[in-house]
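Our consortium's second objective concerns turning raw sequence data into structural hypotheses that experimental partners can test. To show how far this objective has progressed, the report includes one record in full. It was chosen at random from the queue rather than selected for favorable results. The single chain below, 248 residues long, was entered without modification.
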Amino acid sequence: MIRFILVCIVVIGYLILSIPILLVEWIIGRFSPEKKDISSLRIIQAVFRFILKITGVKITVIGEENVPKDTPVLYIGNHRSYFDILLTYSRCPIRTGYIAKKEMEKIPLLSTWMRYLHCLFLDRKDIKQGLKTILTAVDKVKSGISICIFPEGTRNRNKDELDMLPFHEGSFKIATKANCPIIPIAISNSANIFEAHFPKISPAKVVVEYGKPIYPDELSKEDKRHVGEYTQNVIREMLIKNKPLTEK
């Protein structure tokens, strides 16, 4: 429980104390939007790394060399834990916006930081608004900003992490319309940080693997039509391979 309390204190404390930082970042953005984007990204990454340090999580990262550092990408990952966002966002090399559920837009200060970081809010109940969000994400990628989405649509609570929820094919329109590579991310054992024994936070062993870029235009006709299923199979294979690393 001590780790849980410490994490809560850090999150709430940071959001309150960061109000002056938000103002400074806004001022920077008036003169140099890109500098503001980068400084906001690095600030939040430092906070996320600090929170992960508090949890005591032991992270093994594989395949980070597969992530381009000079071009935007669409990150696609499996989703088991709230900590998936911290685990992956703390490692993004360039500006990256995450697609989050619409409900998060109502959280004061947090939603402000998310907008600063080019995060988008997806209304899963409104197809028309959902399509607008996807098209906005396409524009973000075209402007040089990577996008990350967990295409299961919600946290997967199935007992076996290999039993993923279906990937929503609509999420992959971001890559096909923006003509960018897909970077599959397999996150192993992240639910054991928190969700598996709520409200306790445990120093679990987690593996984050970045697969080789997937270029939709280079796939077979059949795989191109079901690029979500294709990507999910790639992630499943990585999860199977890395499972022993979380049990040592």
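The partners drew two points from this record. The longest strand covers residues 182-188. The radius of gyration is 18 Å. Both points have been shared with the crystallography group to help prioritize constructs.
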